[in-house]
Amino acid sequence: MNLRNTLSFERKYTGAHIGIAMFALFLGTLYGPLQALEHAGINLYFLAPWTKSYYHGLTLHGVLNALIFTTFFISGFLTYVVSYSLKRPIAFRWVANLGLILMVVGFVTAAIPLLLNMATVLYTFYPPMKAHSAFYIGVTVLVVGSWVVGLSIFLTLAAWYKDNPGERAPLAAFMSAITFAMWQICTIGAAVELLALLIPWSLGFIDGIDPQFARTLFWYTGHPLVYFWLLPAYMSWYVMVPKLAGGKLFSDPMARLSFLLFLIFSTPTGFHHQFTDPGIAAGWKLIHSVLTFSVFFPSLLTMFNMWASLNIAGKMRDGTGYVAWIAKLPWGKPELTAQLLAAILFLFGGIGGIINASYNINLVIHNTAWVSGHFHTTVGSAVALTFIGTLYWLLPHLTGKGLFSKKAALAQVWTWFVGMIIFSRGMHLLGLLGAPRRTQMGVAIKSEIFFNPDWNVPMIWVGVGGTILLISYILIYVNVVGTLVAGRKLSDEEIPDVPLADAVSRPEQGPMILSRWKPWLATATGLIILSYGPMIIQSIYNYQATSPGFQPW
Ligand code: HAS
Ligand code: CU1
């Protein structure tokens, strides 16, 4: 029996996660074009009459896309990749099932107040804006559910280590486990914020809140959260893209090093979101700024390794020259093209990250539309477009049905690429011209009070880009629904395998420490204590739960 047939429970399990993820994305993305057109002065909110305000829609957009879609997709995808690459089923089904159930309960609990406009606090849920307690409780249960999914992955990997003592875990499983290890460590901040501050406050057990301390705890989780989104995409770029391109990964040890550096450096960087916050000493902000430059490094390793791997694939297809080989890559495969275009968009998003992280120039872009431009080329492209590309092989693999339309899939990835370039170009420029983020710009145009006429042109860019992206969204669901309903039943030989590439430089050629766990986990913990410990102690010492809650919507 082939591996795919053996993993029939895992296929259903992953299918459930991905189904919920795609449902959340569907609702969440509906608001994208509405917001983009609103920026261009065209108000179409009457098409979503249940939306009480711009901020209600923006909260749904952020929570459903950035928190729900990602967490469900990643939990399902990585669980499957671990089982497939280790060639063994999930170690304890009940643990995996418990994780999924908790995530669903958390999602539904949070979704009700969200939809009812009782939690219009945006996806960062900064106090003193105050949501209904069900929102905070739901988010907490969702996070706990994702911890249990992570535990299930660790248990499966541990069972493999037991049967294969002293061996190096396959790259895909190793990377998936690192992603969840990083997630377990970094979500402690949000868990403390929710359990100790927000839930008791929203239930009326404590009168006030300390916004400064809550924000510090939030960003302890908030920055590594972006790597929880990114690392599964990187895993795909390392392990799957070379295979889809018909080549090999350039260096397996270098890929492991990159992920281990993410494990160490992802968390002690959160103050780069708080450069303008009072109450955190400048020296600590500078330390986090420097550490953010350290976490830039594993992305540079990724860029190098990915370029080298694609170069191998291009040369194997008779490609020549320094760049001409790129044309020889199999651009007709939507599952590959999506990820290549995602990586190109990430070049812009990543470079923007360095501007954000620079203590001095962050002041120019902080809280401006630039930041929205940044995160649409990172989570909105590097991550989301990679996940959609993944879906183009994963959906046929899981269901045994052929992709509904390859042409629609190719049109989808290119419209996303073009739409996102135009949209994010507009957002970045608006930010540089001082336009605020999270602001209903159409109203600003009408008010003529705080409107800068230079914003007119980039606002049109935003509207045009958003409209092209709407076409792309529609094409995604044409293919997802089309495949499920009308996809041709594939024979066993036709069903695509999970693409797992071999490496030119193999794991055994790197030092054993690159496959160990303890030294890296210990270093990660030590660095977090050093970079956060003193400020957390000071925040507790200065703790002032004096602010009442506000519901401005
Ligand atoms: Fe960021 C704000 C700094 C990466 C997401 N970021 C945000 C927010 C989000 C976000 C959502 O320092 C807004 C939060 C909010 O609501 O307030 N970010 C960085 C830095 C990086 C970075 C230094 N961000 C990400 C990723 C995200 C993400 C990844 C989501 C997935 N970000 C910041 C800062 C702020 C911030 C400040 C606060 C701003 C403020 O003031 O509010 C780095 O990790 C980026 C490193 C990336 C690179 C690029 C590597 C390129 C690769 C592609 C290679 C391409 C090839 C082409 C080979 C160095 C790997 C192949 C194709 C062929 C065809 C050949
Ligand atoms: Cu960050």
Description:
- With 553 residues, this protein is mostly helical.
- It has a single domain, classed as Up-down Bundle (Cytochrome C Oxidase, Chain A).
- The protein is 70% helix and 1% strand.
- It is built from 16 helices and two strands.
- The protein has helices at residues 3-6, 8-39, 54-86, 93-115, 133-163, 171-202, 211-244, 252-265, 282-316, 334-357, 362-365, 369-399, 406-432, 441-447, 456-486, 518-541, and strands spanning 249-251, 503-505.
- Strands 1-2 form a two-stranded parallel sheet.
- The longest helix has 35 residues, at 282-316.
- The protein is globular.
- It starts with a helix and ends in a 12-residue tail after the last helix.
- The mean pLDDT is 96.
- Bound molecules: heme-as (HAS) and copper (I) ion (CU1).
Q: Which fold name is given in CATH as the topology?
A: Cytochrome C Oxidase, Chain A
Q: Tell me about the biggest sheet?
A: 2 strands, parallel
Oligomer state equals single chain
Molecules bound to protein = heme-as, copper (I) ion
Report low-confidence residues grouped into runs of 5 or more: none
CATH architecture: Up-down Bundle
N-to-C series of helices and strands: HHHHHHHEHHHHHHHHEH
Terminal CA distance? 57 Å
Could you say how many structural domains there are in total? 1
User: What is the CATH class designation?
Assistant: Mainly Alpha
Give the neighbour order of strands across the main sheet.
Answer: 1-2
How many strand segments? 2
